Protein 1
Amino acid sequence: MERDQKSAAARVLIAVLAIIAAALILTPLVWMVLSSFKSSDQVTAYPPSLLFRPTLANYENLARTTSFLAYARNSLIESGGATLLGLLLGIPAAYAASVTRASWPALATLSARMAPGTLFLVPWYLAFRDFNLIGSYTALILTQGVIALPIVIWVLLPVFDAIPRSVLEAAQVDGCGVLRSLWRIGLPLARPGIVIATILSFVFSWNFFLFALVLSDHSTKPLVVAAFNFIGEGSTDWGGLMAAATLITLPPLVLAIAVQRWLVAGLTLGAVKG
């Protein structure tokens, strides 16, 4: 009886903590979406009011005054290209580091990721200027690929570590080399982890602002930079900014929902090593 009471209390505590965590996570998102249907005066009103007459004026103004579809296309090209580049380089790097038990490649990429972006901004700008690549998709994909690469390596490293060594050794006995064992064994077993790495890389690339602001021009400007146009020197169009932020949030959210089954599996993969 006492054990059942403790179990029930534990479930109630977990439910309460889950509700608090969900509230903390969802409140800013809900506030952003609601604000996108308000005028700028209503967004900045104090105290804020949950009762208001919704309007689509912010979305209409966004469609009328900006090339939103073109900016969305640019974001998809740049984020998708950077994610693909990070996966192409990061998957073999993580697998090699796991098989050889070498930690220095992962640490090297992590140190680059921990450094502030402004540290790389000037060298990247000068290099791309010399190659006449400022304002090109190539420059943006390469810079955002540098952001995606450490994410892919550090997400997949414990995933590959969780693959039983006996499976890899059996593949070697059967004549599989490193690349073939990666293709035939590593990739199928690490599929949920690859989904996680893909989503995180895409989201980080989609939302990265600094390099996109400096290295893009009007023809390659992504959504996250275009939203900056709503912030003026003397005033800010908060309604338009919230509408743009809401639309910018949709593609990563739709991607996460579409691969939810693999996402849940990837979050638990590697928790227990075989």
Note: The chain has one domain: 66-268.
Protein 2
Amino acid sequence: MAKESMKAREVKRARLVAKYAERRAALKKIINAAYDGDDEKRQAAYEAAQELQTLPKNSSYIRKHNRCSITGRPKGYMRQFGLSRIQFREMASQGLIPGVKKASW
């Protein structure tokens, strides 16, 4: 099991990402529009980039890390189920995951 502090850190990051998502998207849109050309847009893009720098680092969705919802394990994560490979195997063997069957050949 992961340390409780690591789980709490990921929860905090997820909260920050949700809080700043709309604001970050608006700033990114302004920055990307600067490639069209004129100086006025470039100045606005520069200011938007400066404002983007002032936002918390953990508000970027890239900094989130997938973790098992039960144990908090960061490695061997299966996105489709939100579990680590170990928990997935245990739960599938017990029949707790609908539609999953052990393959035998």
Note: The chain has two domains: 1-65, 66-105.
Protein 3
Amino acid sequence: MLSTGDEKIMAKDGTIIGAGMAVAAAATTVSLGGSVKLWGRIGDDTPGDFFLKDLLSIGVDTSSIRRVPGARTPMSSVLVDDTGQRLVVSYFDTSLGADTSWLPMNELDDVDCILVDVRWPEGASSIMNEAKKRGLLRVFDGDVANPSVLKELAPLSTHAIFSKLGFRLFSGSDNLEENLLGCTQSLGVLCGVTLGHEGFVWVENGKINKISPPQINAIDTLAAGDVFHGAFALGLCEGMPIKRAGQFACSAAAIKCTRFGGRKGIPNRQEVDALVAATYRT
């Protein structure tokens, strides 16, 4: 278990990877057969060099990532305990700024779907507004953030998929199903919530729907939500109904949780399709 006191702990294993919410989602989509371009900002530093090289090695297009002179690339230290739960300590350099004028909006001409998260609200808002004008699918990863950020970005999406805690912050209440119905009606977009080992719940045609995930023994839950979002977005692009896209995403996240290393545990398409077939009969 993760310690809450002053203690030195010797790790059993470790890895260094280019990661993050959007990064893990992008890597998932590529691993499952999609084509992805990542937009974002990093520092003009040594960690940034490693980050780009690592992502290029797995097929993520990083050509539109902006390197900010004098800024430091965001970093996180992650501790994972024997049950798969994790403690994440992150650092984001404010020198990266909030400027969105450099975003290559013309590249949306060749895009079917965008996926944004809460880490850079200004960028997410600009991208989704432009994508909305073009009628593109827009998936929002509503994770933990200031409620004002969640309330600004969710209405701009076509699919607002929250984490359980993110939705609690967004709705201001613990009554999940009642608030999910209400938020779907008020926002006018499809709303859903990922529930970890309890699965995925969403509203469709005015009704609550739920998927239970495959049963697994978790050893590392890091990036599971990001893997879900990357797989879910790809499923939508491929024309999957919400139920099937949810089953596909739950299966991808479940497999990842059986493997140590966060993003390094992302499965391939054959593995996910096999688990979907074995777990969901309809």
Note: The chain has a mean pLDDT of 92.
Protein 4
Amino acid sequence: MSILHNIFFFIIAIGVLVTFHEFGHYWVARKLGVKVLRFSVGFGKPLITWRRKNDRDGVEYAIAAIPLGGYVKMLDEREGNVREDELNRAFNRQPVLNRSLIVFAGPAFNFILAILFYWMVFVVGTTAQRPLLGVPESASMAEQAGFGDKDEILAVGESAVASWSNFRIALIDQGLDGGTLDIKARDADGFEQTRSLQLGDTRVLEDETDIVAKLGFSMWRPELPPEIGGVVEDSAASQAGLSKGDTIRAINAEPVSQWEEIVERVRSNPGQLLVFTIDRQGQRLDINVIPGSKKQADEIVGYIGAYQHVPDEVRDQLLVEIKYGLLESIPKAVVKTWDMSLLTLRVLWKMVTGEASLNNISGPITIAQYAGVTATIGFTTFIGFLAIISVSLGVLNLLPIPMLDGGHLLYYLIETIKGGPVSETFEARGQQIGVMILALLMMIALFNDFQRLLQ
């Protein structure tokens, strides 16, 4: 997948989320009579500017060069002279309640957008991986709890599970504090049972290890013939000349009969030359393939970017369609947004207290990669990704950190309690602290991004 592809969908994602966030500030400000001077998507030098006809305020709309945020500039005596006849429309002259509503509107619109995106996902429907378990890792928590091959997860605690991604999120959500985790599953014979996973003092996000693998779970993988179902663009497989429909008969002259044998051989040989013997339309060929390298858990593994052909009858076992009606999807979207907001807050708190690793913080590079990947997978996957990022933006902007919306709301709370605005010195000092915190977070995020790229 090309870098330009990722950048394009990253800009689309950030553009949509930032525009909606800033529109919240803009719309509420105008409804409350505050004069808006500029609505900018992006920071820095404006690339495009325009004004709407018949707009009595002459608001300037702009798209700026740095697509990592935006702002709404309002009439304010602290930023310049204001005419006497417009003082009542200056932001700083508004009651505390009005200022609070304008500031809160940005994050609120992010939550509204997330609800809309989740509603779209539920209405359009998604085809997801069914939460079927493979044989648990020896001596793992999963094995000790009694899970077996082809168990289907039905619920984690009180959270119903319909897909593998639901299972992963539920493990994070309910496993943050350790302790005992009750998981309801249906075995291969159709018998349902609740098993207790003993986490003890384990914190599921205390390091970067994949949560599912950390607990000893793995996805059920059927025995499949060694036929390639497709290759990823610009991958080792595509560069070597492997293509859909190829049947792999041997690797380095050693016969293979199942897809999992290919996976194991590739994983154990990162960066090493492998000779694939294949059948292609009745012709036997030898193709040289050099697997790429990536870090998984605590080891470096190989991968080539090819996926197996899955027969229809097996696909029906592996996949599940999740879809709801127009009205049924509304409360589900609201609940999903609420749950993801609470989970985001809890994870952030665990990072602050040291119970979750700071390596879980992602920056613009990782977000761009996920934007590109989810857009390639399909519309609903990309929309679901936007919903998650929109929730994150809403939550992060409400944190009581100066420079963020939550920081301004904190100032207004203090103003309400003491009966007057905070001093300029106090606000300036707070701004300095806010800049330092945000700069530190950005440094951590970028460090994690680059570390993932190198790995």
Note: Residues 173 and 343 are 6 Å apart (CA to CA).
